[in-house]
Amino acid sequence: MKPNVGGIDKILRIVAGVVLLSLVFVLKTEDGLWWWGLIGIAPLATGLMGHCMLYTLLGISTCPTK
Question: 18 with 41: CB under 8 angstroms?
């Protein structure tokens, strides 16, 4: 898999992933909304791996290397 997620994009994805995952621990289990925090796994994983499947499908690359 070629990297297609570049510098700023990676940082934003990692920060967004961590913030969303923190909702799992912050929101009360009685609210039933804690599971929305699990959505943070996707941006965190794509930021850490440097590859986004959606970018591949759309032909987008923010990575400066060819």
Answer: no
Whether residue 44 is predicted with pLDDT greater than 80 in this model: the reply is yes
Distance of alpha carbon 2 from alpha carbon 33, whole angstroms? 35
Query: What is residue 60's three-state secondary structure?
Result: coil
Residue carrying structure tokens 């290397």: 65
Q: What's the confidence (pLDDT) of residue 18? A: 95
CB neighbours of residue 2 within 10 Å: 10
Q: Which helix (H) or strand (E) holds 17?
A: helix 7-26
Distance CA 41, CA 66 (A): 27
Nearest of 10, 23, 14 to residue 50 by alpha carbon: 10
* pTM of the entire predicted model: 0.85
